[in-house]
Amino acid sequence: RCCETRVMLSPSALALLVFAAMFSVSEAGCPAGEGYPTSEDKTCVMCGAGTFSVEGSTNCTRCPVGTWSSVRGAFDISTCQKCRRGTWSSQEGAPSASSCHDCQP
């Protein structure tokens, strides 16, 4: 729902998100904060704003809806910041606080 003041991730959903980020590894994987730009290009590049990756992952995972992150090279979901009270973003991988829009009354 719009205007929730907190992102509700159940422990099992958070565990699944972390598991997916950690075990989407094919071959060697990348350092934390990096991932492959495409499935064909096996060169590790820094994750962009709105994403993160853990050690050994091959992809950058998007921050969940209702959050944003301007950090490049993030290695933990904790860099995904909640939208401020009264705002919401339906965008996964939102790169800035301006992605959070006022909720409609």
Structure in words:
This protein has one helix spanning 11-22, and strands at residues 34-35, 45-46, 51-52, 61-62, 67-68, 81-82, 87-88, 101-102. By secondary structure, it is an alpha+beta fold. The strands form four sheets. Strands 1-2 form a two-stranded antiparallel sheet. Strand 3 (51-52) and strand 4 (61-62) form a beta hairpin. The longest helix has 12 residues, at 11-22. It starts with 10 loop residues before the first helix and ends with a strand. The model has no long low-confidence stretch (mean pLDDT 84).
Q: How would you describe the shape?
A: elongated
DSSP E strands, number: 8
Q: What's the story with the biggest beta sheet?
A: 2 strands, antiparallel
Main structural class: alpha+beta
In what order do the strands lie side by side in the largest sheet?
A: 1-2
- The gyration radius over C-alpha positions equals 14 Å
Separation, N- and C-terminal Cα atoms:
12 Å
**Uncertain runs:** none
Helix content: 10-25%
Order of SSEs? HEEEEEEEE
- Name the beta content range: 15-25%
* Count of DSSP H/I helices: 1
Averaged pLDDT: 84
